[in-house]
Design goal:
Elements lengths: L2 H7 L7 H15 L3 H14 L7 H23 L16 E8 L8 E7 L2 E6 L2 E6 L3 E7 L2 E6 L5 E6 L2 H17 L1 H15 L7
Antiparallel strand pairs: 1-2, 1-7, 2-3, 3-4, 5-6, 6-7
Helix pairs in contact: 2-3, 2-4, 3-4, 4-5
Length: about 200
């Protein structure tokens, strides 16, 4: 089973079919930011007329889209947020994300803090530090309250469980931005642009 299929199958049997369809629409909206999708999902959820205590998760999911859209708008205007952090492991690197998280697939399921800096993703907690430079990561995936960073080659990944859907969506958005700025990603993007323009490889 592929990674994405595994994500989609989690807890699906325990969700009302109408909410399952709504969540599928939400997943598509999470992959394609836009205010129109947020308005449509809000309308569709209200139309289901479920008691609020039964759709607390869906309300959180909607709030997460709004958080991500607010972040995206801010990034377009002023760039990625720069945060102050007292963690020595960052060592003066610009830090763009810092929130509590855990690593449910690691031994002991350690809890700590996920930090996304200009150079790497780091997890600090329970006496351990796990780090991966962005040029070693091929893609950032979002799944429920998780951010998954898949390393080059697809044979290894790190899964970080955030406290909220909003934290996970914001982390994924920032990771995507940082991956796009990594040297390998820039080189691939520039090569694709040259190919579309009919220009040969850049001389070294």
């Amino acid at each position: 089973m592929g990674l994405w299929q595994w994500f989609k199958g989690r807890n699906a049997a325990h969700v009302d079919s109408r909410l399952r369809r709504w969540r599928e629409h939400w997943s598509r909206a999470a992959a394609s930011p836009g205010q129109e999708e947020i308005a449509r999902l809000t309308h569709d959820l209200d139309a289901l007329a479920f008691p609020e205590e039964e759709i607390e998760i869906e309300r959180e999911m909607l709030a997460a889209l709004i958080e991500r859209e607010t972040l995206a708008s801010s990034v377009r205007e002023t760039g990625l947020p720069c945060l102050e952090t007292g963690h020595r492991v960052v060592r003066g690197e610009p830090c763009h994300y810092s929130e509590p998280a855990s690593m449910p697939e690691e031994a002991g399921q350690p809890s700590g803090r996920l930090l996304l800096t200009a150079n790497r993703a780091l997890f600090v907690g329970s006496g351990k530090t796990i780090a991966s430079a962005w040029h070693m990561v091929s893609v950032a995936l979002h799944a429920e309250r998780d951010l998954v960073l898949v390393k080059n080659g697809g044979n290894q990944s790190f899964r970080f469980r955030c406290n909220t859907y909003g934290d996970a969506l914001r982390a994924t958005f920032i990771a995507d931005q940082l991956l796009g700025q990594a040297p390998a990603a820039r080189a691939r993007r520039e090569a694709a642009e040259r190919a579309r323009a009919g220009v040969g490889p850049r001389e070294q």
